[in-house]
Amino acid sequence: MAGASDRSWWYDWLQRCRESRQLVLVIVAIALVLDNMLLTTVVPIIPEFLYDIQHPDLPLTYDIPTNPPPDNFTSLLDRGNGTQITPEDIARENRHKDLMGETKSVGVMFGSKAFVQLLANPLVGILTYRVGYSIPMFTGFVIMFLSTLIFAFGKTYGVLFLARSLQGIGSSCSSVSGMGMLAERYPDDRERGNAMGIALGGLALGVLIGPPFGGIMYEFVGKTAPFLILSALALGDGLLQLLLLQPGIVKQEVEPPTLKSLVMDPYILIAAGAITFANTGIAMLEPSLPIWMMDTMGAERWQQGVSFLPASISYLIGTNLFGPLGHRMGR
Asked: Which Gene3D superfamilies does the record associate with it (predicted)?
C-alpha cells in the first residue's frame, strides 16, 4: 500500500508540474539560454582556433627584441624613407594580412547560422501547426546537442561550418516553438508580455555569459571543454522536456494565417525591421572585434570574450525592463 501511495503522490505531483505555466516558461528560458550561450561561446574561440590550424607553426604575438641586431645582420630598407625593416616587422605584417583574410571566412561561418535559421523559421512555424509545439521544441534540443558535440571535436573549417549551420535549424525549432508555447499558455496580454520578457531575458543571459565563458575556458582549459559543458547542460534540458512536456502530436484547432498575409502585415514588417537593425551592430562585431583585438592589441582569449560584456549587460537589462514597460506605456 505504501508503494502504491508513493507512486500516486509522485504521479499527482508530476501532473501538477506538467500543467504549470511557470515550469513551461522555465524550460523555454533554459533552452534560449543554452542556444545563445552556444551562439556566443564560439565568438572568442573560432577566430584564433582557425588561425592556429591554418598556421600551426606561427604564434599570434611576436616579442620585439631589446638587443640591437648583430654587426653581420643584413636588414631590409624601405627605399622610400630609408627606415630599417626587420624580420619581426615582416612577420607582423604577414600575420596582419592572414588575420584580415580570415575575417571573411569567420564572418561567413558566423552568418551561416542566421541564414539557415532565416530559411527554417517559416517551415518550423508551419510544422508547429501540424504537430504542435513540443515535438519541434525537443527536435531543437537534439539538433543543438549534436551541434555542440561537433563544435567540441571538430578540427576543420568545414566541420565547424556544418556545426554552425546545424545550430541555425536547432535555434529555429527552439525559438519558434518556445515562443508559440508561451503565447498559448499565456493568453492574457499583460501576462504574455511579462512571460516573453522573462524568456528573452534568458536569451540575453545566454548572450551575456557566452563570450566570457568561451574565452576563459579556451584560455585555461582548451577548446573542447566549454562545448562539453554546454552539451551536458543541454542534455539536462532535454530530459526536463521529456519529463514535463511529453513531446507528442497536438494539432492546432485554429487555421493559421498564410505566409503571404504575414509578410504583408505592416506591424510584422516594422517589428522584423527593428529586430534586424538591433542585431546588425553586434553581428558585425562578432567576426571582426576578436580578430582586431588579436591583431592590434595582442589580446588574450579571455579578454576577447569579456569585451562583449557591456553590450550583453545592457541587452539583459533591456529585455527585463521593456516587457512590463511596454504594457504600461504601449508598444
From this structure: MFS general substrate transporter like domains
